[in-house]
Structures are given as structure tokens and as C-alpha cells.
């Protein structure tokens, strides 16, 4: 065993001594670089153990709002990076996420941070999909359970089956069912708490809408989404805390109202542009507030602009002043009659005339009081995108007027836009395409893929350098070996010639001292004497090939 170990050590030492300087540098540097890369990867992948990403990919404005809201809750250790990720202490992440959901955050992004946990660089798409679903369920359950009224929560998520990078005609929908175990003394959830759960679930699961979410508690209460404006200000005996009854009926009616408009407009657009030639949406907001209206209407007599004459007073008077002013109206006896005015400035002998007419008409008076308890349309807007390259302003205005009349709204609430529908791909996953033809792409983890490409690239470069070094070293050794063999062959031939010619009894010169006329094989050797080169090459050959040298010497001795 010791002999073998010594042989291995000797071989390694020999190889190391014979290796070139570049080969030695690569042999030392490659393991160091690989170890350094492994250490960096371990540090990067494990540096966030004590922190967690609350929300990711937020715009700067919303990330600032959420960070301020978290600090108002007493958590000061909040970090927002350049990618819009909000990083908080891991032990507070679930509680903070629930409180942010209750405040309506996030509004513009999906919680992709869960994708980065539990998936390594070598996971397949199926593994990633299953891990994503499982961790979504666990994370949502833990977050919802952080509410005061809830003891535990279970979320069951169903993701649509898709084939990545394959053409498909099926549009799957994500679904989620949440079961809540309430505490023994807890009351049913309020509308605000239900909305917080809805927001958290829909923003965490890609492609999930409120219509595909169901929530039920341990007391067999089923909860539905209720818009804040539809909340009842006061509770009555016919309305429970989940806002069912009137609020649900109003919500269902609003959906039916919008769907009727969509069906009618969709049929019209299909006849105009074909099934795949347009895309549109209808948005409506209904007002269910009761309204009292009181109006009074006055109706004149038919054919006239006034009513029926009810009372008429006419007064007419005239006369002249004599020289003595003995008639009413003269300044000396003015104001003796209440029915006639006193005129001043008249001179004796001038006449005057007075006429007064007062007529009172009666018209029809209709007073109407209306109490409205139905609904009114606060806003109704339509957005239409047409699959065509060009559209004149006249065509756009005409189309706006047609859609406005068909939907029962005004032209300023109708938006019309034209753009050719083309297939496109995104980094965030989803379905894209024209009509029913879709390209389904998975979400791409840019950081992990970039890191993987860098590591693989460095590995390939190091392997290429090592292969090139080994090839160069092998080629150099072959050249040295050929020179040594040529020198030894020349020495052997010279020894045999000297023996056959009957060399004298003089002391034979050793093969190393024989002067052979051998041309130098390298430019460096040309500067030295042929004898020195020959000695060095024979010495090197003897060290590396002792068996061959021994056989040659044995043959030379037999010849003597």
C-alpha cells in the first residue's frame, strides 16, 4: 500500500514539475474560482433568511405608500429596493400582509415573492408549478389566520392546466376556496374583513377574479364580495354582517345590467368586425339611493299665455285747473282724496289725466311629489379596440356616436382605439394572441436565470481553458519526446558504428560525451553547443524512459 502511495506521489510530483507555468496557474486558480462562486451563491441564496418580501414589483409611488403605512403600524425595519420589492422582518410578514390587504394594498401588482421560495435552479416546470401552488396555499392560510377572529384558515387553489410554449384554444381560470375556523366567541366576519381576504387572494393568485373565490367559515356562513358603497349604514333584522340580502341582490342586478349591455354590443360588433376583429368592455355604476322629487306646474288657459280673469280694478280721472285752483290736484288742496295723486308743477289753465288698471288672473296649479326607490345610472362607459391599422377621425366620431346611442350613454364616455392584433410574448406569463389563438408562456425568474447563465458561462470558460492548457502541455511533451528519441537514436547508431570498426582498448567515452553532428531542434538550442544539447536531451530521456535506456545499453554491451 505504501509503495503504491509513494508511486502516486512521485507521479504527481513529476507531472507538476513537468507542467508549464500557465498550467500550474490554471490548476490552482480554477478550484479557487469555483469555490468562490459556490460561496457567493450560498450567501446570496441564504441572505434573506431573516427577512421576507412582502410585495414585489410595485411602482415607486405605491411602494412608498405601503412603506409609510407599515411604519405607521410601528414597524420601522422596512426596505424598498430598486425593483419595487418591499422587504420586512420574516416573523411579521404574514401579519403585515393581512393588514395591508385590509387597507386595499397592493393595487397594481401580484405577489410573485412566493415563487422564489422552495425552487432551485434545476427544478422542472412541473415542479415549480406544484411548489408554487403548495406554497401559495400555505402562505395564504397563514396570512388569513393572523386576523383576530380567525383561529386557522385553509386555502385550496386550483390552477388551470396549460402547456408552456404551445398553441392552445383553452382559457383556464384559476379558482380558490377559503375555509375559515372562527374562534369560539368570534362573530361573523364584517364586509371590510371579507374584502381584505378577497383582495389578498386575488392579488396572490395570477388570473384569479373575485367571481372565482368562495369563502366559508366554521359556522356555515358564506361570504360574498360587497362593494364599499353598497354597505348598509345600519343593520336591521333582515341583513346579516356579510352583507347578503339587499346588497347581494343589487350587486347581481348590476352584473346582469352590464352583461345585457355587453351581449347587445357584442352582437353588433361581431356583425361589423367579425368575432376576432374587436375587443371591448363595459363599465357601469348604479346608484340605489332613494330620491324624493317635488314639482309644481302652472297651466294657463288654452290658447293664451295667461289664466282666467279673476278680478279687475280700473280707475280713470281727468280735468283741468282753473285760475283759482279749486279742483283736487291743485297744490293748495292736495292729498284731499286718497284715490287720486297730487300733481305739482301744473300751472293754472293746464289739464291733466290719470288712469289706473289692476287685473288678477288665476291659473291651474299642479303639485307633484315623487319618491324613487329604484336605481339610477351614475356612470356608464364603453371602451372599444378595433383590429385595424388605420381609422380616420370621422370614422372614429361616427363609431363613438353609434356605440353611445346603443349603450344609452354620451359620446364623451365612449373610447375608441384602433390597433392591429398581433401575437406577443411577455416575461410575466399569461396568454397573448389574436382571437382564440394563444401562446401560453410561464413566468420567468429573471434573477435566477441570469445567475444560472453566468455560472454556466464561467464553467464553460474554465473548462475550455483547462482543455487548451492540457492540449498545449501534451503537444509540448510530444515535441520534447521526439527530440529525445532522435538524440538517443543518433547516439545508438554512433555506438554501434564504433564497435564494429574495432574500437581500441582506450577507455570508451560515455554516450553523453560523444560529439554528434545533430542539428538543433529549437531556436534556443541553436545558441548552445551541440554537445551540451545532446547531453541534456539524453539525460531527460533517461529520466523519463529508464527501461528503454537500459535496453539500449544492454544491446551495446552485447555488441562489445
Quick gist of this model?
This protein has about 550 residues and is α+β, with helices and mostly antiparallel strands.
Explain how this protein is built.
The protein has 560 residues and is α+β, with helices and mostly antiparallel strands. The protein has four domains: 1-47 and 445-502 and 509-560, no CATH class; 50-232, 2-Layer Sandwich (GMP Synthetase, Chain A, domain 3); 259-289 and 373-443, Alpha-Beta Plaits, CATH 3.30.70; 292-369, no CATH class. It is 41% helix and 21% strand. The chain contains eleven helices and 17 strands. Strands 4-6-7-8 form a four-stranded mixed beta sheet. The protein has a three-stranded antiparallel beta sheet with strand order 1-3-2, covered by helices on one side. Strand 14 (376-386), helix 8 (393-407) and strand 15 (414-418) form a beta-alpha-beta unit. Residues 328-336, 423-444 and 502-527 have low confidence and may be disordered.
Distance between the termini: 42 Å
- What is the helix/strand order? HHEHEEHHEEEHEEHEEEEEEHEEEHHH
What is the total number of structural domains? Answer: 4
Largest sheet report: 4 strands, mixed
**The CATH class of the largest domain:** Alpha Beta
